[in-house]
Write a structure and sequence with these properties.
The complex is a heterodimer of chains A (about 240) and B (about 230). Chain A has about 240 residues and is an alpha/beta fold. Chain A is built from 9 helices and 9 strands. In chain A, about 35% of the residues lie in helices and about 25% in strands. Chain B has 10 helices and no strands. Classes of the chains: A alpha/beta (about 240), B mainly alpha (about 230).
């Protein structure tokens, strides 16, 4: 049996840039719970925290530790960026790319990529250049590319920012399917409705600090901190 | 003006009459230049990629030196290659002086810095775009460079074509190491220099127009083969 990469433990972890603390110090342990939403006002450190967990940012202090060696853990996670990074290839080649990186055969990669392209609703544009896709299609492509390797954990940074309601619903459908298939989701979002719909755990960040970690069904009706309560009311937090 | 017109007419006559000497030196020009550009690209594109994705202590200095080498004087390159391959030189035993191979070596030295510098610039911009994605996917350094070269291939074509442009019109170095020997190392540029020195301006101009046509033709052919500047392609 394959050893789980969870829990993910952050111990006194912080990220600084030009002397300014972007996030931290944070102590946190994430288990193999299904879906976590990271919420908070702009500049709270949501993206930095996601990037820190995924290894795109280095700790300036403290540590980020998976249950298995870091190199192995990196292979079992994916990241979807707020603005999809679209490679200069066809849609099919973009989705197959992570498989090629892992040494999968070309035929098998293309078959699996085509399957994922179809699954996310890109069947008709698989042979098109990825750059000509619409915003929603690009985000679906990014999701398919992230999920094609069957990651144990998927980090998402505002996956539905700038998308309309229909595209958001489609993306959320794909995410729900991924969760059902056993992928752990950690997602930064500004959309409280989305956090309610998808997550079963909420991390509330404010000024780079973790103010609250709570089950979704408890957090929204009765946040424990005044900052979280103000944020949910729609107050402007300084 | 009359000489220019005569040059046009001479170029037309040479092409229409399928002049054997013209065909020979044109093919040799193509052979020497394309071979040099092939090797310069094979060396220069990965080096440009490596410079773009790798951080090391003297990186900025190396980039500055490579950029400076773009202006390497061909005559000096020719002289150095001549000394290296002359009978008394360290590679004299190879007997390559006054052969197309020596001309190719000189052109590789001239063209490679150009390819490195332009490809570094193109790949650096693509790397800024792809950085987070490739790091996130745990791509190795080799995979990153290969990906950037593949995805930037149309931009990198500019690097190779710039190299081709410099090499096809080069005369100083190949004159020194090739010797402009008839039926052996004579190419279009050295033939033009020879005819000019003989005062045969119409023929020199005619060869010049053929040279320009060749450069344009090769660029056009490569753009067509690689399908650049078409809808939804880079």
């Amino acid at each position: 049996m394959v050893e789980s990469i969870f829990p993910l433990a952050l111990r006194n972890a912080s990220v600084k840039r030009k002397g300014k603390v972007l996030v931290g110090p944070i102590d946190l342990e994430l288990g193999s719970n299904a879906a976590t939403a990271i919420i908070g006002p702009n500049g709270a450190g949501k993206t930095s925290l996601l990037r820190l967990m995924h290894g795109l940012e280095r700790c300036d202090s403290g540590s980020v530790q998976w249950a298995i060696p870091d190199e192995e853990a990196r292979k079992r996670q994916s990241f979807v960026f707020q603005t999809p990074i679209i490679m200069r290839r066809t849609v099919l080649e973009c989705i197959a790319y992570p498989l090629a990186i892992r040494g999968a055969g070309k035929g098998a990669s293309r078959n699996l990529a085509a399957e994922w392209g179809e699954r996310v609703g890109l069947k008709d544009v698989l042979r098109d250049q990825a750059a000509v896709l619409s915003g929603g299609e690009k985000q679906k492509l990014a999701l398919a590319r992230a999920l094609v390797t069957a990651p144990e954990v998927l980090f998402l940074d505002e996956p539905c920012a700038n998308l309309d309601g229909r595209a958001t619903r489609e993306i959320e459908g794909i995410l729900s399917d991924a969760v059902s298939a056993g992928t752990r989701i950690v997602m930064a979002t500004h959309d409280m409705g989305q956090a309610r719909r998808i997550s079963n755990e909420v991390l509330f960040l404010y000024k780079g600090r973790l103010h609250e970690i709570e089950r979704t069904e408890l957090f929204f009706p009765s946040p424990r901190t005044s900052e979280a309560a103000a944020f949910l009311r729609g107050d402007i937090l300084e | 003006m009359n000489e220019l017109l005569s040059g046009f007419i001479e170029a037309g006559r040479l092409i229409v009459s399928l002049d054997a000497d013209l065909a020979e030196i044109t093919l040799r020009s193509l052979h020497v230049t394309l071979t040099a550009v092939f090797f310069a690209s094979a060396i220069g594109l990965p080096v440009g990629g490596l410079l773009a994705v790798t951080r090391f202590r003297w990186r900025r200095h190396v980039i500055a030196v490579v950029n400076a080498l773009m202006g390497l004087p061909p005559v000096v390159v020719g002289l150095v290659v001549y000394i290296l391959f002359s009978r008394a030189g360290p590679f004299g035993v190879l007997g390559l002086l006054f052969t197309p191979t020596a001309m190719i070596i000189a052109q590789i030295i001239i063209v490679t810095p150009l390819v490195v510098s332009i490809s570094h610039q193109a790949i650096r911009e693509l790397w800024a775009e792809y950085h987070d994605l490739l790091i996130s996917m745990n791509a190795s350094k080799r995979q990153r460079i290969a990906t950037l070269i593949y995805d930037g291939r149309r931009a990198l074509l500019t690097a190779s074509l710039a190299g081709f442009g410099r090499a096809i019109g080069e005369v100083g170095a190949i004159m020194i190491v090739g010797g402009n020997i008839d039926h052996a190392t004579r190419v279009l540029t050295t033939a033009i220099a020879l005819e000019t020195s003989k005062g045969n301006f119409p023929l020199a101009l005619g060869l010049g127009f053929v040279l320009i046509g060749l450069a344009v033709g090769v660029n056009f052919a490569i753009h067509n083969i690689l399908r650049t500047e078409r809808a939804s392609l880079w």
